[in-house]
Design goal:
87 residues, elongated, 3 helices
Length: 87
């Protein structure tokens, strides 16, 4: 019996990784909203969009995990900097 899923359907690991990437993307943009300087905020938004778009077609699980790790670290650094500037 043939599968009813489309050939492009993600397996469970791919699906979970995708969810993690989308969560990071949303979290980055939520954090960027807190930047007081509008031009800096816009510049960082463009950078983030471009970075995510340029890696959109990456399918290597190890590369994706590595990029996620780097992205989460960068996000924490940004959040830390914003917290310091607010205090």
């Amino acid at each position: 019996m043939a599968s009813k899923l489309p050939k492009s359907a993600l397996n469970l690991k791919q699906f979970l990784l995708r969810q993690e990437v989308l969560k990071l993307y949303r979290e980055i943009f939520r954090t960027l909203r807190k930047i007081p300087d509008a031009s800096t905020c816009q510049e960082l938004k463009e950078w983030a969009r471009t970075d995510f778009k340029s890696n959109k077609h990456c399918t290597d699980e190890t590369s994706i995990k590595s990029m996620l790790h780097y992205g989460k670290k960068s996000l924490k650094d940004l959040q830390r900097s914003l917290a310091l500037s607010e205090s």
